[in-house]
TrEMBL record:
The keyword Nucleotide-binding is annotated on this UniProt entry: yes
Higher taxonomy: Bacteria, Bacillati, Actinomycetota, Actinomycetes, Kitasatosporales
Domain ABC transporter: 2-219
Protein's UniProt name: Nickel import ATP-binding protein NikE
Enzyme class per UniProt: hydrolase
Documented EC number(s): 3.6.3.24
Species this chain originates from: Streptomyces griseorubiginosus
Length: 220
């Protein structure tokens, strides 16, 4: 279970953007977090993915409190999460070909021998044709780059997926393909999902449970 307990977080301790928020995701569960622009959803998503240390509150992974964040987190924690962000161009190294971008986590964890098979498997799963894999980010569309980012998030077979507005700015068919790829992965592995967004219809179709930002506070 992934549990966020009484999380307060932000970028200036005097004015936190997330205040006393609690939320949990069971293994295999898909939770959709809905809220208006700027309310703090992305900040909370980054806390959930152990990428942003909260000012106060506790994140528990399978009942164990997390004490270290970002690169200081133990490898088992870092690799437990696959994260996809809203703007793929901001989350990739522009010099990497898509194949290397997708393989990055395998290379970083010393699993180079798995790269060819895993990249081929994931390219199919996310709908990237072989000709696209040798291109660099500026040579592909936003949707194609987001598919590669999803593949990168799945490459280490995480137990938890954090998807932060991953279909914003994409057309309906690309959005549907990305959601389908996430759901195929979850069906195969039983991974839990926290999907953040403001598109009620999309999150309602995608997730088993919807949570509204305004209902997350201490009074909820
Ligand atoms: N790195 C940062 N430094 C300072 N303030 C930030 C930073 N990132 C976000 N903020 C501020 O924190 C608040 C919450 O931002 P956040 O991105 O978490 O909201 P959001 O609900 O995900 O918004 P959106 O739906 O528009 O992406 C906003 O007021 C934003 O300006």
């Amino acid at each position: 279970m992934l549990e966020l307990r009484a999380i307060t977080a932000g970028y200036d301790r005097r004015t936190p953007v997330v205040r006393d928020v609690s939320l949990s995701v069971e293994p295999g569960e898909a939770v959709g977090l809905l809220g208006p622009s700027g309310c703090g959803k992305s900040t909370l998503a980054r806390v959930a993915a152990l990428l942003h240390r909260p000012d106060s509150g506790t994140v528990l992974l399978d009942g164990e409190p997390v004490h270290r964040w970002r690169h200081r987190a133990p490898r088992a924690h870092r690799t437990a999460f696959g994260v996809v962000f809203q703007q793929p161009r901001l989350s990739v190294d522009p010099r990497l070909r898509l194949t290397d971008l997708m393989a990055e986590p395998l290379r970083a964890t010393g699993r180079r021998n798995e790269i060819p098979d895993r990249v081929a498997e994931l390219a199919t799963a996310v709908g990237l044709t072989p000709d696209l894999l040798t291109r660099r980010p500026h040579e592909v569309s936003d949707g194609q780059l987001q598919r590669a980012c999803l593949a990168r998030a799945l490459v280490l077979r995480p137990r938890w997926l954090i998807c932060d507005e991953i279909t914003a700015m994409l057309d309906a068919s690309t959005s549907a393909a990305l959601v389908a790829a996430v759901e195929d992965y979850r069906a195969e592995t039983g991974a839990g999902l926290l999907a953040v967004g403001h598109d009620h219809a999309l999150l309602n179709r995608w997730c088993g449970r919807l949570v509204r930002w305004d209902d997350l506070g201490p009074a909820a």
